[in-house]
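pinging the channel bc i need a second pair of eyes. not urgent but kinda urgent?? the chain im working w is below, pasted from the shared doc
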Amino acid sequence: MRSMTGYGEASRQVRGTKITIQVRSLNHRHLDLQLRVPREYLSFEEEIRRRLRERITRGRVDLFVNRFAAKGTERMLELDEALLRQYLGSIRTAKKKFRLAGDLDVALLTSGPDLFQVRDKEVDAKAEKEAVFHALQSALLKLDQSRRREGRQLAADMESHIVHLTKTGADIEARAAEIGTRLVKASIVVREGDAAPRGEKDGEVSTWAFKGDINEEVVRLKTHVAALAAALREAGPVGKKIDFMLQEIQRELNTISSKMPQLEVVQLVLAGKGGVEKIREQTQNIE
């Protein structure tokens, strides 16, 4: 079982460029991918998304791809030779025409505007693609390890609540049997013309006779709780499955309290619902 919360990071070095990938996942009802990719890698952003979807089924995933090039390797200085020739030609023409003195030297290169242009080098994204996906694989592996580690902690906490739910189901079954026996005896007494036994609430005998027992509900409750415990041991995503089972358990508890509203049963049902809510809170963190 995996939590939806985790973090992974990995780096690769290629041709003087460092590529770092950070991936973080948070709770979310569905799969929500948020990517921050350098413009140099936009051509394979969709493949990154596909690999994320292969590994993650639920949660908000923030992925950051950072590219750090060594200083001086990403930009280059270019001399506009054609423009320089025009400068030199114009100066020579002016010297001859106006009989100007002086020699031309390299100082012209620093004084002439626009003779030099600084531009970014073109990045060979294909050459860096392999490094990007190696880093992505390592980051996702660390993310998965983080999510599994937290998943084990969540499972341990949920198992403790399932133990209490199992005990609650057994206690409800025992109390229902006691109440059923007591009310059957009371019903016999009433049919024989005697007053209801002392200690029985008003209308308790008729209520039992009208609504019947809760044996089927107890059996389903125990079955759902056992299935819930088994789901925690499954390897794949189980969050939605657990949430569905909790709804079924809640439904059985509601039916039990409706069909047998005696105080001792209602108290057990409330305790069971408390356990269901605690598990439901943890389920919000499970993939």
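so The CA atoms of residues 78 and 117 lie 5 Å apart. and The chain has eight helices and six strands. — does that match what u expected or am i reading it wrong
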